[in-house]
TrEMBL record:
PROSITE patterns: ACYL_COA_DH_2
EC id: 1.3.99.-
PANTHER family reported for this sequence: ACYL-COA DEHYDROGENASE (PTHR43884), ISOVALERYL-COA DEHYDROGENASE, MITOCHONDRIAL-RELATED (PTHR43884:SF12)
SUPFAM superfamilies: Acyl-CoA dehydrogenase C-terminal domain-like, Acyl-CoA dehydrogenase NM domain-like
GO MF: acyl-CoA dehydrogenase activity; flavin adenine dinucleotide binding
EC class: oxidoreductase
Taxonomic path: Bacteria, Pseudomonadati, Pseudomonadota, Alphaproteobacteria, Rhodobacterales
One of the Pfam families matching this protein, by short name: Acyl-CoA_dh_M
Gene3D superfamilies: Acyl-CoA dehydrogenase/oxidase, N-terminal domain, Butyryl-CoA Dehydrogenase, subunit A, domain 2, Butyryl-CoA Dehydrogenase, subunit A, domain 3
InterPro entries: Acyl-CoA_DH_CS (IPR006089), Acyl-CoA_Oxase/DH_mid-dom (IPR006091), Acyl-CoA_Oxase/DH_mid-dom_sf (IPR046373), AcylCo_DH-like_C (IPR036250), AcylCo_DH/oxidase_C (IPR009075), AcylCoA_DH/ox_N (IPR013786), AcylCoA_DH/ox_N_sf (IPR037069), AcylCoA_DH/oxidase_NM_dom_sf (IPR009100)
This protein's name: Acyl-CoA dehydrogenase
Record domain Acyl-CoA dehydrogenase/oxidase C-terminal: where: 232-365
Recorded name of the encoding gene: mmgC
Length: 387
C-alpha cells in the first residue's frame, strides 16, 4: 500500500516481514483467544536483536534510532501481531541509558541487549490517584543501605515476562516539596528478588488479553544502589522517556491502521452482495478511504517526531500529536473494518475483533487522548492550566 511518509527503510521492513511471516494469523489468534503470552514470537524478536534496536553498540545493541525502532513496532502490528506484548523492552531501557550510572549501564544494558535480562515493565499508575501522577502514594524510605517500599500500583504490564521493573515512588512527602513534581524517585527492581519478599502481584483479567497486574508493596527492601539518577528527580527522569514511548506506540497504531485498511479494501473488493462488490457502494468505500487519509497524516507526524528525537531536538509536541492522531486513525480504521465485514467482523477467525479490541487500548494508555489534548492546550497553545 502506498504511503506519503519519507520512508527509506525497505531492508529493515523486509527483514521484519520475513520474521513476522513465521508467526501467521493463526498463531496470534490462538494466543489472543486463550489470553496467553506469545512467548515464541517475543523470543524470536529478542534473539534477532530487534528489541535492542535502541541500545548503543558499546553495550551490545544495534545503536539504531527511534525511526528504526518505530518501524519494528509498526511492522509487528502490521503483520497481525501486537507489539504491546514487548514494546516495554524497547523504551524502558532509555531511562537507564539516560539516567543510570556507568555501573548500572554496564550491569544491565549488555544483558538486556543479548536478551538475557528483560526490562519489560514500568510501574507508575496507582489505583487511587490515576492520571494525577504527582499525588502517587507509594513511598520509598531510605534506611541505611536500602530503600523500603510501601504502597500499591495498578495496570503494571508484562511483570510475569520480565526480570526487571522500573518503579516510580515518592521519596519526599508531597507536603515537603516546593513543586508537586519534585520528591519522586525511580528505582530498578529485580523482580526475582522482590516477588514474594514484600512485593505481590495479582493479574488483571482484561479486554485485550494484555498481561497486566495489580502490585502490592509491603516493606519491600531494595538496595540503595538501585536508585536511578538523582533522588527526588524521578518524575522528570520518567518524563524524558515518554516521548519515545508515545512515538513508538503511535507507530503501532499506524501498523494496526494499515492492517485494517488492507483487510477492509480486500474484503470490499471481493464480497459480492446485490450482485456487486460491496466496495462499489460509496457508503462502504468512503469510511475506508477516510481512515486511510487519517493514517497517512498520522504517519507523517510520527516520522517528524522520530526525526526530531533522533536529532536530539525537543519532540514533545510532535510525539504527543503523533500518538493522538495515530490512536484516533487506527480506531477509525478499526470501526470501518468491522463495519465492512458485517457479521463476519465478529467471528474470531478473521482476527478483526481481536485487533479492534487491541487498538482501542491506545485511546486510554499509556496516556489518554484527553490528557494529550490538555498538553496541547496548555503547553503548545498557551491556554490556562486546568489541573
Ligand atoms: C492494558 C493496560 C496496560 C497498562 N500498562 C501500564 C503499565 O505498564 N504501567 C503503568 O504505569 N500504567 C499502565 N497502564 C495505566 C494507564 O497508563 C492508565 O490507565 C492511563 O494513563 C489512564 O489512567 P487511569 O486509568 O488511572 O484513568 P483516570 O486517571 O482515573 O482517568 C479516567 C478518565 O478520566 C479522564 N480524565 C481524568 N482527569 C481528567 C482531566 N483533568 N481532564 C480530562 N479528562 C480527565 C482520563 O482521560 C480517563 O479517560 C495500563 C493501562 C491499561 C488499560
Amino acid at each position: 500500500m502506498k504511503t506519503s511518509a519519507p520512508d527509506t527503510h525497505d531492508d529493515l521492513r523486509d527483514a521484519l516481514r520475513a520474521l513476522c511471516a513465521g508467526f501467521p494469523p493463526e498463531y496470534h489468534r490462538k494466543h489472543g483467544a486463550a489470553e496467553t503470552y506469545p512467548a515464541e514470537f517475543v523470543d524470536a524478536l529478542t534473539e534477532a536483536g530487534w528489541l535492542a534496536a535502541m541500545i548503543p553498540e558499546e553495550f551490545g545493541g544495534s545503536g539504531l534510532g527511534l525511526t528504526e525502532a518505530s518501524i519494528v513496532m509498526e511492522e509487528i502490528n502490521r503483520s497481525g501481531g501486537n507489539a504491546g506484548h514487548c514494546h516495554g523492552q524497547m523504551y524502558n531501557m532509555g531511562t537507564l541509558l539516560r539516567h543510570g550510572s556507568d555501573v548500572q549501564k554496564q550491569q544491565y544494558l549488555p544483558s538486556i541487549a543479548s536478551g538475557k535480562l528483560r526490562l519489560q515493565s514500568m510501574a507508575v499508575t496507582e489505583p487511587t490517584t490515576g492520571t494525577d501522577t504527582t499525588k502517587l502514594k507509594t513511598t520509598a524510605v531510605k534506611k541505611g543501605d536500602r530503600y523500603v517500599i510501601n504502597g500499591q500500583k495498578v495496570w503494571i504490564s508484562r511483570l510475569q515476562h520480565s526480570d526487571l521493573m522500573i518503579l516510580l515512588a515518592r521519596t519526599t512527602p508531597l507536603s515537603e516539596v516546593k513543586r508537586k513534581s519534585q520528591g519522586m524517585s525511580i528505582f530498578i527492581v529485580d523482580l526475582k528478588d522482590a516477588i514474594g519478599n514484600g512485593m505481590e502481584i495479582q493479574p488483571i483479567d482484561n479486554l485485550v488479553g494484555h498481561e497486566t497486574n495489580e502490585v502490592f508493596f509491603d516493606n519491600l527492601e531494595i538496595p540503595a544502589e538501585n536508585l536511578i539518577g538523582e533522588e527526588g528527580h524521578g518524575f522528570h527522569h520518567i518524563l524524558d522517556g515518554l516521548n519515545a514511548e508515545r512515538t513508538l506506540i503511535s507507530a503501532e497504531c499506524i501498523g494496526d491502521g494499515y492492517w485494517f485498511v488492507e483487510k477492509s479494501r480486500d474484503y470490499a473488493c471481493e464480497r459480492v452482495v446485490f450482485d456487486r462488490p460491496i466496495g462499489q457502494n460509496q457508503g462502504v468505500q468512503f469510511p475506508i478511504s477516510k481512515s486511510y487519509v487519517a493514517i497517512e497524516a498520522a504517519n507523517l507526524m510520527r516520522f517528524e517526531a522520530c526525526k526530531r528525537f533522533d536529532a536530539g531536538q525537543d519532540c514533545g509536541a510532535q510525539a504527543n500529536m503523533a500518538k493522538l492522531l495515530a490512536a484516533d486513525a487506527s480506531w477509525e480504521a478499526a470501526n470501518a473494518c468491522i463495519q465492512t465485514y458485517g457479521g463476519f467482523g465478529f467471528a474470531r477467525e478473521y482476527d478483526i475483533e481481536r485487533k479492534f479490541r487491541e487498538t482501542r487500548l491506545y485511546q486510554v494508555a499509556p496516556i489518554s487522548t484527553n490528557l494529550i489534548l490538555s498538553y496541547v492546550g496548555e503547553h503548545i497553545l498557551g491556554m490556562p492550566r486546568s489541573f
